Amino acid sequence: MGKRPPTPPPQRDLLAGLVVASHGRQLDVESTDGARRSCRLHGRRLQAVCGDEVLWAHATTGDPQGTVYEVLPRRTLLERLDATGRTEPVVANLTQLVAVVAPQPAPDWYVVDRYLAGAAWAGLQALVAFNKDELAATPEASAELGAYVAIGYRIVRCSTRGVPGVESLAHELAGTTSVLVGQSGTGKSSLLNALVPEARAVTQEISAATEEGRHTTTTAALHRLTSGGRLIDSPGVRDYAPALPAVRDVATGFREIHAIGAGCRFQDCRHETEPACAVREAVNGGTIRARRYESYRRLAELARHFATKYPERAPPRTPPGLRR
Q1: Which residue, of 26, 259, 275, 292, has the fewest CB within 10 Å?
Q2: 268, 272, 274, 279 alpha-carbon torsion, rounded to 10°
Q3: CATH number belonging to the domain at 11-71, selected among 2.40.50.140, 2.30.130.40, 1.10.472.10, 3.40.190.10
Q4: Residue ranges matching CATH 3.40.50.300 in the chain
Q5: Residue 227 reports pLDDT greater than 80
């Protein structure tokens, strides 16, 4: 039989902490005095991700690790879908998502849309950071960025190698708990190092703790900003699928589609084949960007696929981030 986990200490003896990095069952936890220590999760059912607030206790005599006994209720949670349609937590207790793109590698705007939709469903603010601005945007990228501005998203241009620098991005991060997300190669780690000078040393320490010695970001890690905010750097991706709401609610992740959809003839219009659909009319008339509409259609189809294949995992009707 396996070794049983230690009996939890009395509630009064537990200490508050913040998960600053997660490596499966192993966590790096920052205590209220600012010290960071390695901890393990108590029991197999307990799960924690970067950004979680936890209760922990010092390990038994002779054991260098602490033990996390409880994960406190999350205010927000950014999730993703795996290949079977199950949701996986990514980072917790965020207030803002920053989707990072750059001239190189060429942006995948569908991935950006998915992050922005996921932020809406999680109840997060969101903005797009156009990094490596010294390379200049292509006409296509300029058009896409302009389209985001038109529907109300903030765009920040930044560079770690010259003008315009990172000051505007730092201003947007002040006082928030933000996560940098996006494709691999967009320069998220360079941005982090420019915004948090000590981040490189902390990241190397986290890599050493897992005995991996990696030089690229492979796990989300939280860092404190001089502005009083917190910044989480996440691994780069080739694709991302957010935790999806019911098919009827997918449009809530697309601001312009959701707004214009109020003018459809049918209240439950899916904006695909229904007659007198205000959304499709707006697409045909150029009011809604055709690529954004295609992005919506792809997520709606994905939601429909998983709802049909795994009906027992049907999500709530109203996305968590839109509940009142």
Answers
A1: 275
A2: 80
A3: 2.40.50.140
A4: 77-233
A5: yes
